[in-house]
Design a protein that fits this description.
Elements (H helix, E strand, L loop, with lengths): L2 H16 L3 H13 L5 H14 L3 H16 L13 H9 L3 E5 L2 E5 L3
Antiparallel strand pairs: 1-2
Helix pairs in contact: 1-2, 2-3, 3-4
Length: 112
């Protein structure tokens, strides 16, 4: 099967499993685009749909992280990530998100 056939089969499987709902369409559309890169807004919509269809801690934490980024990056150049304040770190930690800082990097972990 080629990529289009796999995508169509997956889409039909999602429709059968969950029904004809907006989250299925969003998840399918953005999962196809995911490979080429999503904007922050598209990434949030994708994870919201994923959390709705397949709720789990990783999706929940990832959604918290993405929405935090969206709130913090209003005035930042494209691709830049805000440096978290102590208040930001407390917020992220309270949602189970691990943050590690080194002098040259910031690592965010949203896994289980």
């Amino acid at each position: 099967m080629d990529d289009d056939e796999i995508a169509a089969a997956t889409y039909h499987q999602l429709l059968e499993q969950f029904g004809d709902m907006p989250e299925v369409h969003t998840y399918h559309e953005l999962s196809r685009k995911f490979v080429s890169g999503l904007t922050l807004e598209e990434n949030i919509a994708f994870v919201e749909a994923a959390q709705f269809l397949f709720p789990n801690e990783t999706n929940r934490k990832t959604l918290v992280w993405l929405k935090w980024r969206q709130a913090k990056e209003i005035d930042l150049p494209a691709g830049a990530i805000a440096e978290p304040t102590e208040e930001d770190l407390a917020y992220l930690y309270s949602h189970g998100i691990q943050v590690m800082r080194t002098p040259t990097s910031l690592t965010i972990y949203t896994g289980p």
